[in-house]
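Exercise 3.2. Students should predict the tertiary structure of the chain below and write it as structure tokens, then compare their answer with the key that follows.

Predict this chain's 3D structure.
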Amino acid sequence: MLPIDLVFVRHGQSEGNVANRASRNRDNSFFTPEFLERHSRTFRLTDKGIAQAEAAGEWLRANVPTLFDRFYVSDYIRAKETAVHLHLPHAFWRQEFHLRERDKALMDNLPADEQEALFKQEQRQYELDPFFSYPAGGGESIAGLCLRTRAIMLPHWGRSWSSAHVVAVSHGHFMRANQLELEGLSHDDFIRLDSSEKIEDKIRNCQILWYSRHDPDTHELMDHYVARRSVCPWDPKGDYGWTRIKRKKFTDDELLAEVNQHPRHLNSTQRAHRAIRQLGDLLGPDAGVGDECLDHRR
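Answer key:
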């Protein structure tokens, strides 16, 4: 059984957030030789990121009624700096590298134009399916990230702290992977959320995702997470309230409707027969290639 409350906090705005956003707009001025020599693990918070972390801590202290029992933080520097500025009472943080951000391998800390030049073909392949595919340049797929949390962190929290209230300071993609796992969401749900322009679907800097086994309406304690609250504490309109978790199951008709969204490209028995005949004509009559090749019973 998972902790009574499991609260994720994304790190505040980091140097990497600022540099990468500028680079996507064709401004590589932040990518100095010194900056390029860094791994993204070492990125610090900006002044804005520190203010975001302080706002997140203020919101947690005011709105989470029970003090946290256990405190986890990613091994990345920006997450540790965020944890410090939350100013949570009685915090003793456990550093956990399994909470790290998604691995981007050769794309790590690389300007956008260089990414495009070096990995154009890989990026095209990645965009065909951003859930299952590895990032251009290697690293972790979202499916692999889900496996990381399903196999390591969620079982650990369930075994060790099922009656506790846990906070974990981490990263956007790691939080999204936990959202998929804890809410029973699918490949298509990730694609929808990842491409959504709705502000309530995004995981912004210092976004809080709070999972609870307490029913927010009846206050009954359940054996599974019943609701998730999403809050961006530095945005005055950023409290999106509690959302009930409904783990969907599918009927045959619903599965078929999804299947039919993907047209077959090799869907004709006549086409197969024609291909066999063409092959037979090419090889000659002594090759033994004909329509009977399609009948596995012979």
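Discussion points: The CA atoms of residues 274 and 291 lie 9 Å apart. The radius of gyration is 25 Å.
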